[in-house]
């Protein structure tokens, strides 16, 4: 990109140009192309190249609206650099409104960076990766909770990598869950290939949730400001923040099959020993209580209120006492100073 153009096979997007294209990554049983929508916005001034992607799990919709809005509705406002906007990565899954690729239920998000001679999923991943991920300097990949559950907005990032940590903090979320991306995930492959990338998780599948979409758009503006792509002010401090390590989170699981009543919502603070929810039999004659093992925040909760033994009810992350105090100040309407 020495001359400032963004190039891909069969095309180039010049500085100051925005292009919407449908890029073929596979073929259907009828031999028709499977085409992924891509918008490339090349600013008229030089700067980093950033990808924004969504719906790599085909039923996780909130991110689609974030990426589409950035691609189409944002003012040009002195864009320095290039945005590669991929609102629907898993086109077959999106059409079927399901998480995985319909053929053999393959997870596109375990197929990266892909292979030109591998499975159908590998080949799709390879085309996406080589054309639109590998050329980027940073990336944001948007997800929601799996069907039947919901999440508060949080970022997942490998905080051991300073470039990834800078990106994660720039998004301005309260919660960052630390860890490398799973093998084969877009995030993991991009980070390994030299494109620092984080995952943004928010809300539930099969929905547009306006509050989350707006908060994520603020996060995108903050990230772009951090790298001087966009003349907004980055969110330096969201009032409180927790970076969750591996041993500071747990899934609270049902020990009995039954019907669930949760007594708290996503984003709620619970104290050690609090009853988070109950599992009852059909007659309500037997009740199993689920209690919080430590003080923390319910990052994810069940939406579909039925469980087998072992099914997760909620995802709890630990908060220390100063963070709890800051959380409570934000809840009561004041913005704490950065410590
Ligand atoms: Zn997902």
Automatic annotation (TrEMBL):
Keywords: Hydrolase, Metal-binding, Zinc. The keyword Hydrolase applies. GO terms for molecular function: hydrolase activity, acting on carbon-nitrogen (but not peptide) bonds, in linear amides; hydrolase activity, acting on ester bonds; metal ion binding. Its cofactor is Zn(2+). It comes from the Archaea. Residues 46-226 form the Succinylglutamate desuccinylase/Aspartoacylase catalytic domain. PANTHER family: BLL3975 PROTEIN. This is Succinate dehydrogenase subunit. It comes from Halarchaeum acidiphilum MH1-52-1.
């Amino acid at each position: 990109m020495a001359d400032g153009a963004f190039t891909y096979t069969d095309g180039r997007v010049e500085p100051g140009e925005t292009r919407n294209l449908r890029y073929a990554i596979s073929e259907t049983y009828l031999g028709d192309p499977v085409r992924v929508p891509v918008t490339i916005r090349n600013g008229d001034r030089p700067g980093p190249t950033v990808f924004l992607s969504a719906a790599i799990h085909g039923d996780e919709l909130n991110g689609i609206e974030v990426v589409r809005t950035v691609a189409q509705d944002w003012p040009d406002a002195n864009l320095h650099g290039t945005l590669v906007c991929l609102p629907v990565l898993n086109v077959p899954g999106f059409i079927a409104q399901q998480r995985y690729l319909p053929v053999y239920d393959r997870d596109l998000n375990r197929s990266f960076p892909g292979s030109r001679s591998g499975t159908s999923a590998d080949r799709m991943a390879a085309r996406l990766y080589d054309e639109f991920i590998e050329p980027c300097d940073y990336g944001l990949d948007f997800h929601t909770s799996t069907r039947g559950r919901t999440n508060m907005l949080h970022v997942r990032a490998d905080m051991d990598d300073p470039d990834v940590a800078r990106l994660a903090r720039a998004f301005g979320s309260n919660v960052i869950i630390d860890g490398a991306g799973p093998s084969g995930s877009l995030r993991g492959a991009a980070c390994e290939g030299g494109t620092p990338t984080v995952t943004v998780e928010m809300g539930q599948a099969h929905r547009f949730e306006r509050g989350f979409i707006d908060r994520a758009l603020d996060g995108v503006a903050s990230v772009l400001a951090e790298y001087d792509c966009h003349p907004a002010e980055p969110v330096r401090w969201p009032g409180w923040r927790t970076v969750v390590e591996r041993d500071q989170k747990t899934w609270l699981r049902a020990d009995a099959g039954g019907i669930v009543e949760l007594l708290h919502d996503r984003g709620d603070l619970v104290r050690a020993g609090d009853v988070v929810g109950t599992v009852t039999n059909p007659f309500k004659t037997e009740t199993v209580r689920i209690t919080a093992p430590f003080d923390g925040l319910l990052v994810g909760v069940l939406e579909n209120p039925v469980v087998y033994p072992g099914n997760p009810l909620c995802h709890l992350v630990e908060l220390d006492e100063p963070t709890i105090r800051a959380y409570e100040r934000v809840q009561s309407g004041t913005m704490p100073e950065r410590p």
